[in-house]
Design goal:
Blueprint: E1 4-15, E2 22-25, H1 35-50, E3 55-59, H2 66-76, H3 80-87, H4 90-97, E4 106-115, E5 118-126, E6 134-137, E7 140-143, E8 156-161, H5 162-166, E9 175-179, H6 188-194, E10 196-197, H7 202-213, H8 229-241, E11 247-249, H9 250-258, H10 265-272, E12 280-282, E13 292-297, E14 300-305, E15 314-316, E16 321-323, H11 326-344
Helix pairs in contact: 2-3, 4-6
Length: 345
């Protein structure tokens, strides 16, 4: 279904880098909902969804501020006045920004729209170099429809999936938070403004990606054959380990192993299995558990997952290996007896 804008407005927060003073130039009216505005909202929606720095979050429990109170008031009674009032919660962000010497201002675009039968409330920060021309006409900001839309990286954004937020039986995260900070973390002042919480920790992202790599369909090698699971896991481990900062981008990872036509392979698998995963993150210390250690001597072959080498599972001593597994012992005993029985016949 095409995107339908319900309400949209833009304000300008004026803040220079290395200063602690900020001002807001509010628009007196909402933007006209025309083809250009609709195209812009669609481009921004797609840009947020595809942004590698997206973080899945929710609102802080048992805490409110101007942003969340006015947002809920608007959702309860979706009028033009309530929407404009919600957008003026930018006053609260201004007080946060003024405390940050290196923070910069820009155009804050608030929108309420529906696409593909889902409703979204989005707040997007657009810098002056965002590939869109915003001009002031009288007391209101307007979009210059003569410009071509060319959305560069979104500076910051928060997008509420209303359908998930409004469904008490759906425990998925309903807030998508965007940042372009070099460390991949969300700006504290922006996070405080929208009261975002519950972002997925790198350790959890790591565990979930490892689970996907251990179960997703295997890639095909140059001869058209599936590579083995252990080889795939080792190759993925090495690919991420050699990246600067050990950061992994699931789209690049899919591209590398499944081809450019399947950049969404991991994302699609995660969605199909209801696994919530950030598109980009730094792998945690458990990443080494993705690999297995394969060793052999004549007549004996061992293939052991890294995390199974411990005193409770596979206890490696100086000249002795103790495998503590009743299940494995039972399987070997059963197979051994079967072979012995056949030999006696």
């Amino acid at each position: 279904m095409p995107l339908i804008i319900h309400r949209i407005i833009v304000h300008y927060l004026d803040k220079k880098e290395r200063t602690t003073e900020a001002n807001i130039d509010y628009s007196s009216e909402m933007l006209a909902i025309d083809d250009f505005a609709t195209k812009l909202a669609e481009e921004l929606h797609n840009s947020i969804s595809a942004n590698s720095s997206i973080k899945n979050a929710a609102f802080k429990e048992d805490e409110t501020n101007t942003f969340t109170i006015r947002l809920n008031d608007y959702l309860d009674d979706s009028t033009d006045d309530k929407f404009v009032l919600f957008s003026k919660s930018l006053d609260l962000l201004k007080t946060q920004v003024e405390k940050q010497q290196f923070a910069k201002g820009g155009y804050y675009l608030f929108s309420d729209y529906s696409i593909n039968s889902s409703r979204y409330i989005a707040v997007v920060l657009l810098r002056k170099k965002s590939g869109i021309n915003i001009i002031k006409e009288g007391d209101k900001y307007t979009l210059d429809g003569a410009e071509n839309i060319n959305i560069e990286k979104i500076a910051m954004a928060a997008r509420l999936n209303y359908d998930i937020f409004n469904n008490t039986r759906d425990d998925r995260k309903y807030l998508a938070i965007i940042t372009t900070q070099s460390d991949g973390e969300v700006s504290e002042y922006f996070k405080k403004w929208v009261l975002a919480a519950g972002m997925i920790k790198n350790t959890v992202n790591t565990e979930r990606l490892m689970s996907i790599i251990k179960t997703i369909s295997l890639p095909i090698d140059e001869d058209g054959n599936e590579i083995s699971r252990s080889d795939f896991q080792r190759n993925v481990y090495d690919y991420v380990r050699t990246n600067a900062g050990r950061r992994v981008n699931i789209y690049d990872l899919s591209d590398h192993f499944y081809g450019s036509d399947s950049r969404n392979a991991i994302k699609d698998f995660a969605d199909a299995n209801k696994i919530v995963l950030d598109p980009e993150f730094k792998v945690g210390g458990k990443w080494k558990n993705l690999i297995s250690i394969k060793v052999s001597v004549p007549g004996i072959i061992l293939n052991v997952d890294y995390d199974k080498i411990n005193e409770n599972d596979v206890d490696v001593q100086e000249d002795l290996i103790v495998i503590r597994s009743p299940e494995l012992a039972a399987q070997i005993s059963k197979r051994y007896k079967q072979v012995t029985f056949l030999d006696e016949q």
